[in-house]
Amino acid sequence: MRITEKTPAEEIYKKAYHLYQFRILTILFLIPLYVLTCKWGNFTIENLWSLYGVIAVELFVNRPYKVFFRDSRSGTQALIGSVGIDFLAETAALHLLGNVDLFIFTSCFFISIVYCALNLPTILTLQMATLASALYAGLIVLGRFHIIPNTVSLGPDLNQVQETAIIFRHIAFFYLIAIFISFLSSALMKKDERLEELLRELRRTSDKVKYAYHIQTDYFARMSHEIRAPLNSILGFSQLLLENPTEPLTEKQKDFLSRVERSAKHLRELINDVLDLSKIESKKASLELHEIELVKIIHTAIEVFNEEALTKRLLLGFTKKPLNLRIMADELKIRQVLYNLISNSIKFTHQGFVSIALEKETDGGARIMVEDSGPGIASQDQAAIFQPYEVTGRTIDKGGGKGTGLGLAISKKLVEMHGGKIWVESEPGRGARFIVTLPPVPPTPKPEGNALPADPAATD
Hints:
This protein is α+β, with helices and mostly antiparallel strands. The protein contains 10 helices and 7 strands. Helix 7 packs parallel to helix 10. The chain starts with 8 loop residues before the first helix and ends in a 22-residue tail after the last strand.
């Protein structure tokens, strides 16, 4: 990301420090490489102390210090100065080695120019090319007049015109590199800017979706409360009519009222599920923790569904259990998870069994497994069944009605509130095994507000 006036000073300091680290790697690699390849067997130590001085400037003087990065303006100037000092120091080091070829000099220039093109304003790329050209031409001229030792090697047996042509060609090469890198970095920056714009748009869309989802959940919760009052009246009067001994009903009337009662109960279950889900989604649900005995709770859950299992001629049992297993949890919510899993297995199992197993984890937590001999769940549907209002994955009897699609979603959220996990292992035609893991003690919940998120349209 290119540095601008809005870039925080801390971010500029991080970029300067990354450049400093890269600079050290360059010193450790480029100079020894040149010594080994060009000076092998002919290297003298007369210029080593001067070379050590240049390296010391790079490592200690040109190191980014926090005092120079107080704000964005001073931080940008410090970074630009660091790049310039870096190039001058590397050029000085190469000069002290002597008789440097164009490849080594261009490598030094190329590293600095790429960094400028990717991080600093575009004009600095051309300024760096100008600096490199001036240093290159100046070193050659000073070497030819014997003011300093020859630094850049142009080749043997060249006349003045040929050397001048080579110098101009090399300078043109520096500018060509600068223009090419600037063009390439501009293209990369435009793509980065476009990507950032798309990410911002994605965040805005995500905020709008979250807001709409919370509005929908809140609306469902309010409407569910309004619907539940007349629904309870329907259930109550239906039961009174069915149980009235003084005015017996005909069989047809009983059948109609029984259908009304069953439909009302089904609608009440749906409303209760919607209310539970809305409380969890709006962060209004909390855990009331105390030590619970899981073996006892599972036995109680099995007793609730014994009659339904007998009606469908299913074997329902607690097949594997420790002597006792106690954890810290919300008993009502763990009981609700068990009810949902056992009810779900009985609903989708036509013959065979539904079994519950309990194991103690190595960390003191618990693993609960609810297994059935039902039709199984395809792998592509195993994640979807834990989503709200999702009823794909399994089929049930014609007379069994349809599920609300909320039981497993609520169970997943309740288990996650406890810091546990829930998943299913299944293959089509081989039944399904739902596995719940619970820690010995739930993690401390993070404080979150209960209010709906702000309307993103208000900030657009």
